[in-house]
Amino acid sequence: MPFQGLTVYTFLSMLPNNPSSASVIEVQAVHKSFRNIQAVRGIDLIVHEGEFVALLGPNGAGKTTLVEMIEGIQVPDAGEIRVLGKYWKGHAEELHPHIGIALQETRLIDKLTVTETLSLFASFYELGKKRVAETLSLISLTEKKDSFVLHLSGGQRQRLALGIALLNRPRILILDEPTTGFDPNARQEVWSILLNLKKEGKTALVLTTHYMEEAETLCDRIYILNQGTILKQGSLDDLLGEERTKTLDDLFREWTGRHLHE
Amino acid sequence: MNSLFKPRQMLWLIRIHFLEIIREPGVLFWGIGFPILMAMGLGVAFSQKKEMVRTVAVVQQSNCSVDTNTLYQTVLEAKELGNVVFHFQKTEWPDAMLLLKRGSINLVIVENEKGRQYHFDPANPDAQLTFLMLSRMLNHPEKGKERSGKEEILPLTVSGTRYIDFLIPGLIAMGIMMSSLWGISYTLIDRRSRRLLRRMVATPMRKSHFLLSLILVRVAMNGIESVVLFIFAHFVFGISIEGNLPALVLLFVSGNFAFCGIAVLLSCRTANTEVGNGLISAISMPMMVISGIFFSYQHFPEWILPMIKHLPLSLLADSFRALFIEGAGMTVLSLPMAILMAIGFVTFTTGLKLFKWN
Fold first, then answer.
1. Rounded CA gap, A126 and B7, in Å?
2. Which of A43, B181, B235, B303 has the most other CB atoms within 10 Å of its CB?
3. pLDDT single digits (tens) A185-224
4. CA atoms within 13 A on the CB side of B46
5. Percent above pLDDT 70 for chain A
6. Which residue, among B24, B203, B213, B217, would best test binding to A if mutated, counting the most A CBs under 10 Å from its CB?
């Protein structure tokens, strides 16, 4: 079984169901296949409290499958995933209140207003109008609060999806390609919200992306995925090493012969 | 946080399901406007003519020497029939049966050497009325009993009443079916295709609350749609309910339960709205055609009738008709209600077992 990227954290994650207090997500030797396709092949990953981590890789690298397993939406074929020290099985009800997610290409209900959409999700967390108003302000959609989702731009919809993910002040935020297909302005708006969140230091972020700039701008550590495995991991400095004139995309092409954005 | 029932969550889910419906004019049109338009069109076409023409087939057998032309002239000249005009169509027995099956007539008179035979469905008030008027005129003392021989009624099992009486309960039943199948199945499939179901179950939302709120809103909408249609039919066509209210409520609930169960089963797996459209149409369209909503299913071959009668839409439409027209109570309706509940239970539990949230 491939066991790449073995760190002290993966060692800690092998301990019984009582992990280090510093880690909020521990993924160990996880595999997942769909029919004959091996989407994830023996991945290990650790995310610490308040840490921003990017899963960077081209389409088909296994990023979405990995985050869906972390979110508890998919069940691994092999390996273990612990979130806040707990396995998903039997603990979903305890874990959901601490996690915020924005899935790739979720389409909300067109004929609800922004406020109604946030209020609906707020009701799931037993949150009131005050938190809805705070979130509207956080995602800069107060002026659009009475607009139907149908009438929002792509960037505004993504900010709304981000707002839903942030409603419960999650300890873990998982965003699956949050700015794919956006123009630079819309991307900057989402980044700005996330950078403010990073300053607060209370939320850990797992972000999948194939935009190298997104990973570089937002994240403390970057996992580079290719064909269901982790190719490299570390901070931007670690990954670039001596080759400061190159970009992550250049390195990825050297390693795999492919571009990150493929 | 861990309580089984979360009222705030439930209220918000109910609220958004309602908002979605009332903000979609198409849904309101198909749910409320369309059945009324249909009732108006068909009802006016069949029930509000200035002259009520009653066409009767007359079969004169070769061994009968009676001058039927003169005989029936007494009826044609009668003034005491109000706006009813009789039209006698001399024909042979096979053609008379064909007319009967097509709904062109509801009574056949056979004249033969033994006397006169009236062939009609005794359960059909329209046919009964035709018979009563005709027999009175044909045996009018002043006109003289024009012929000797015995008169007898030979029952025919052919459905048909005042058409609007037949139509309205069927339309209500059909409305419940269509509204449940499209309102629940399509919503679930659409939410799944939008990945919204997946997003919602990644929160502390209770899955039971989501399904229950969707079903409650749909049943409430079905109630509103049925009441609106009934009120319209009551004031425009004089439709009334002969049966009792508790039986009506129970029947309504069991019909809704059956179709909500079918709706959940239909939408338990697919995330493709086009496949969903096909599935819903494949279930609803045949029932609409063969369950006797617009015309009696008695015209179908004998061998298939037991199956048709036990389709959920047939059970519901027939039970509504029995309750509306005949005043049927719990005793008569308990069996169809039990079957509808059983259909709902089996389909709902199977649907839940197979249900794919992700």
1. 10
2. A43
3. 888 888 999 999 999 888 999 999 888 888 888 999 999 9
4. 21
5. 89
6. B203
